[in-house]
Specification:
Helix content: 25-40%
Radius of gyration: 25 Å
Shape: elongated
CATH class of the largest domain: Alpha Beta
Largest sheet: 6 strands, mixed
Order of helices and strands: EEEHEEHEHHHEHEHEEHEHEEHEH
CATH architecture of the largest domain: 3-Layer(aba) Sandwich
Number of strands: 14
CATH superfamily of the largest domain: P-loop containing nucleotide triphosphate hydrolases
Strand order of the largest sheet: 6-7-8-3-9-10
Number of domains: 2
Bound molecules: adenosine-5'-diphosphate, magnesium ion
Oligomer: single chain
Length: 303
């Protein structure tokens, strides 16, 4: 297990930011950590990366306890904090050298590792610039490079794509996906699409408590008692005929020969529907299951 969080609570003064949060992340997984602003995402990530202590509970990373064995945890974790704090006056290579030094990497080792990192995050063209002169997308690449410099097993990325333009967004997502092939990644976001694009699994947190911990596919079916199929026939159909179909809950004519068909209990009615059409001398022009959007699920769970 890469990350094991057990009954974590965090209280700031009088405010409870996390309440008995537990979850696990396996080796090599890419987890989306989702929740509205103030849900406790950054707090959880700061605890996992030894930046702040928890009030109660325990966290281990690669088998090391964040309180008792924080040096070992730091060796195993790369962290890109929210708002990516960088020294804008430093040159890209100078900064990576500085961060490598904090990890006690030798000059010799860094003279090989820094060019490797620059190439793997795609900073070649910008490598001789000051960080302050880089666009936001390239600053994020520097942030990823510093998180990866000591070759950690686990990467914690706090809203790594917030504020990027659509092109930068795609590039950084691609980069995270490729890094994720070799490492365990936990990334926070409030963009559902992002989770769908990159993550194996999503953990949703709301007001300091976990409200979902599922694969994106399972999550999309959650909270829905009926399954919707959109079907288009080649000819007009009467609603009374449709109602004879076994398992059909309701049928609604949405446009000319197109129907929105609901079936109960998640039953997949598509083959029944198809056979019925054939038996009634109708052609099915299109037929597809209507997916509940992840945004809908997110809103239901965090309202
Ligand atoms: P998220 O990252 O999901 O937006 P945070 O973990 O930053 O959420 O915050 C969770 C809650 O804890 C919020 O209500 C926030 O105001 C509060 N909080 C975060 N940091 C501090 C702090 N240093 N002192 C007091 N309250 C804090
Ligand atoms: Mg945050």
């Amino acid at each position: 297990m890469s990350i094991k969080v057990t009954d974590i609570s965090k209280v700031y003064g009088t405010q409870k930011a996390l309440n008995k949060v537990s979850f696990e992340v396996s080796n090599g997984e890419i987890i989306g950590f989702l929740g509205p602003n103030g849900a406790g995402k950054s707090t959880m990530m700061k605890i996992i990366t030894c930046f702040i202590p928890q009030t109660e509970g325990s966290v281990s990373v690669c088998g090391y306890d964040v309180v008792e064995q924080s040096i070992e945890v730091r060796k195993n974790v790369g962290y890109l904090p929210e708002h990516n704090p960088l020294y804008l006056d430093m040159y890209v290579k100078e900064y990576l050298h500085f961060i490598g030094g904090l990890h006690k990497m030798s000059n010799n080792k860094l003279s090989k590792r820094i060019p490797e990192m620059i190439s793997s995050v795609g900073l070649q063209m910008e490598q001789n610039k000051k960080i302050g002169a880089l666009s936001k997308g390239y600053k994020q690449r520097v942030g990823l490079a510093q998180a990866l410099i000591h070759n950690p097993n686990v990467l914690i990325l706090d809203e790594p794509t917030t504020g990027l333009d659509p092109n930068q967004l795609t590039e950084i997502r691609e980069l995270i996906r490729s890094v994720g092939k070799e490492k365990t990644v936990m990334l926070s976001t409030h963009i559902m699409q992002e989770v769908k694009a990159i993550c194996d699994r999503v953990i949703i947190i709301n007001k300091g408590e976990i409200v979902a911990n599922e694969t994106t596919a399972v999550l999309q079916q959650q909270g829905r008692s009926e399954t919707i199929v959109i079907v288009e026939f080649d000819k007009a159909v009467r609603v009374d005929d449709l109602k004879n179909i076994e398992g059909l809950l309701s049928a609604q004519n949405t446009s000319e020969n197109t129907w929105k068909i609901a079936s109960a209990d998640g039953k997949d009615i598509r083959s029944t529907l198809f056979n019925w059409a054939v038996a009634n001398n109708l052609s099915v022009l299109t037929m597809q299951r209507e997916e509940q959007s992840l945004e809908d699920v997110f809103q239901k769970l965090t309202k």
